[in-house]
Structure formats: C-alpha cells, structure tokens
Amino acid sequence: MMKKLLLSIFFIIATVLYVNAQTFKLTWDGTQLGDTVVIKDVSFVSEMLFDPIVTNLTSSDIKVKVRRTNISEVESTQNYFCWVACYAPFIDESLEYFVMGSGVSSAQDAFSGHYTPLSYSGTTIVEYMFYNMDDESQNLKVYVKYVANNFQLTWNGEPMGASVSVSAEFIVGELVFNPIVRNSTDSTLKVKVRRTNLIVVEGSENYFQWVLPYEDSTNVSIEYLEMAPGASTEVDLFSGHYKPNGNAGTTSVEYTFFDIDYEIIYQKFVVNYTSLPDAIDESILKGVHFSAIYPNPAINFVNLNYTLAPGVKSASIRISNILGTVVSEANLNLNSNSTRVDVSQLDGGIY
C-alpha cells in the first residue's frame, strides 16, 4: 500500500512538472531547475540573488508576467523582484509584461529575485510564478528558499542544519556534542553562547563549554571569543555535554551563538540528546500508531497524527536523508495526538 502511495505521489509530481514545462523552462547557471531552489551560505550583509533564464517552450508568442508570493518571511528582512522593470518590496505582481517568441529565452538579467537578510538568520520562502497574461493556466511556479546563516556548525565533517541528534544507550556516562563553529558573516564578532533547556529528562544533567567549561547551572558563557570574518573554532572549543545518569529519554537543548555588541546577530541550534534503554517493551509498541506524513511533497511544514500508549514517557520524530543521516528531530507532545514539523530549511530531495 505504501509503495503504491509513493508511486502515485511521484507520478502526480512528474505530471505537474511536465505540464508546466510545456509552457516555460527555467535554467540557472546552465542547469534546468525543478520546482524548488535553495540559496544559502551567503554573508548576512550581502544580497542573495536569483536570476534564472526563462524560456518559452510553446509554439506561440506569449505575453509573460510574474507574480510573487511570500510563503514565509524572516521578520525585518526584505525581498523584491525585477521583470522588465524592478519593483518595490510591497509589489507582488509585475506591472510590465514581456513578449516572448516561441523558443525564445530571456536575457540573463531580465528576471531577478533579490533578498536582503540584513543581520537576521533564518529561511525566507518565496514563490515566483511566470504566466501567460492571456491564459494564466500556462504558468510555471518555482519556490526559492533563501537561507541566511550568521554561524555555521560542522560536526564530524558534515554541516549541521537547525537540529542534530546524539544518542547512545543510557549506560553510557556522557554524550558529547563538539562541532566546529564558523563565523559566516563578513564582520569580526565577539561571540558568546546561551544555553536553553527545552526539554529535560528527570535525573539527567547537562553543561557546556565555550572557551571555558561551565557548571550545569550556567546558561550564558562568561567568556566571549573574538572571531574574524570566516574564522572557525578549534575542535572542542565549544562542546555540549549530557549525562543521562541512567535515565532513558530525550533531552533537548538549544544553543544560541550571538554577538555581544549586536545581539540580533545570532544563530540557534537544537541538540537532542537521547539515552536509549537496552530493550523496548513490545506491549507498548502495540499501542503506538502513526499516520502518513502530509502534505507530501512538502515545502514549509509537514504534519503527523499519532497515538501513543500510556506507558510511553517520551517520543520524537526523526527525519533522515536518503543516506540515513538524521537531519531534523522534534519531540512529540504526550498530551496531543498531532504535531507539525518545520522542514523549510531542508534542501529539496527525498527524506
């Protein structure tokens, strides 16, 4: 049943893209685009630019306009677009149209999407729709995710997303998370770390190190580290430490890296420390049920309905990429039967 559902979903996606492709094609840097584009790892003072070439694949001349829809926005950021002319950030539809002959492609700078994150980190998602003004059913939509990171964390050689999972059997004395931290801006920053305990397993403890190690009761580092533009920390300069003390479950800790002179320059990362029992009671598993994730495919959020047995003390949903690497994890509310997970920062692909 699941295989049929997935095949049906893939067929629908392919059909939609095929129909749209009969009208327009978008290429960027020589590559034909799908329905989602991710632009990231650009310094926070820079403007992110999306300037694909648009091609009319029909057999007729058409009058092409562009409509912008802001799906989700990072507060205080700005974006605008150009099509024939450039428009103010509050304009969502081009006033001008461009007559495109059959098989004709636009110039490199005919269309462009512009995003200015300023000093704010996060993901803004913008939909651009190219359409025939005489027949709007002839259109092509592309979703652009503008991802601005003030800091980038790398762990075991892999770049981190907004969350990461660290797990082991609870007989392990301590779980350690020790990524390399990079200043992704083009300014010198005086960086401190703030720890926020989101969910804590009773009887466990955790602490962190930033330049110096701190006690479990300390939430903000006393010391700061001056980081030049593009500079990265040495291994173990920052580390998060979790001691389950024989207790199973997941503790979620948020670490915020911020500039002490300009605190709106920050980046948050959530680490889910999970201590696993030696075995799972099968009677508990019989009372656990999960729905299929929806919508599928997704752009911004996915939803999940679930039922947990009375004996369950903690539960979480993990999203893994095709290689099996956990890229996101969210704890489930034991008093609810549904959850919503933010997937806006994930690259397009199969998870």
Protein architecture, described:
With 351 residues, this protein is mostly beta strands. The chain folds into three domains: 2-148, Immunoglobulins (Immunoglobulin-like, Sandwich), CATH 2.60.40.10; 151-276, Sandwich (Immunoglobulin-like), CATH 2.60.40.2310; 282-342, no CATH class. The chain has helices spanning 2-21, 282-285; strands at residues 24-28, 31-32, 36-40, 48-50, 53-56, 62-72, 78-83, 85-86, 98-100, 111-116, 122-132, 135-148, 151-155, 158-159, 163-169, 175-177, 180-183, 189-199, 205-210, 212-213, 225-227, 238-243, 249-259, 266-276, 289-290, 301-307, 316-320, 326-331, 338-342. The chain is globular, with a radius of gyration of 24 Å. The chain starts with a helix and ends in a 9-residue tail after the last strand. Mean pLDDT is 83; it is low at 1-21. It contains two helices and 29 strands.
Helix content: under 10%
End-to-end distance, in Å? 18 Å
Q: Tell the overall outline.
A: globular
Give the tally of structural domains: 3
SS strand fraction: over 45%
Low-confidence stretches: 1-21
Strand count, sense and barrel status of the largest sheet are:
5 strands, mixed
What class do helices, strands and sheet pairing give? mainly beta
Could you give a short description of this structure?
The protein is mainly beta and 351 residues long. It folds into three domains: 2-148, Sandwich (Immunoglobulin-like), CATH 2.60.40.10; 151-276, Immunoglobulin-like, CATH 2.60.40; 282-342, no CATH class. The chain has helices at 2-21, 282-285; strands spanning 24-28, 31-32, 36-40, 48-50, 53-56, 62-72, 78-83, 85-86, 98-100, 111-116, 122-132, 135-148, 151-155, 158-159, 163-169, 175-177, 180-183, 189-199, 205-210, 212-213, 225-227, 238-243, 249-259, 266-276, 289-290, 301-307, 316-320, 326-331, 338-342.
